[in-house]
Amino acid sequence: MEDLTRESAPGAPDVPADRLSFLLVQLGMHGARRFGERLAPLGLEQRHAGMLIRLAANQGRSQQAIAEMIGVNATRMVFLVDELEKLGLVERRRNPADRRSHALYLTDQGLATVEQVRAITAGHEAEFGAGLTEAQRAQLVSLLHVVAEQQGLHPRGMPGLPPTRVRCPADAGCLAGLAGPGWPGR
User: Can you give the pTM of this predicted structure?
Assistant: First the structure.
């Protein structure tokens, strides 16, 4: 079998180029960085773009329902909606059926921004898969769906690291057993 090890920087360990997880991480980080660069002129981050696209297809649903649909915990969802609200892209309205909850809607500026995000996304997709034929692209996407499902990833979830469940002693002050950067127990 051919040696697929690529030459590394001096002092760095050689990493075989046929390692699935290594390639996925490398491509994911590169793709996320490039997408972030494309979104920067709009004053958005990747998570904002993902939320806007999902919200465009689910306007008028409760904040909680959308959070559950995309696999985002309630705290993260509140912060994300707060940020989009401050940017003038999203508004919360009292849910007439349940005054304790809020329905989410895109503002006119939010609707215009969604169209810009869609155009940026199409350009990003075209650049990212430029070296593939349509058949290769379809096959790769299909195989990645298999891997994502096997790994338990939410099919409509938001990219990023989900909170990690940890065991938390009652006196440790952990919030609902969730841990992440900056959380107790990490």
Answer: 0.72
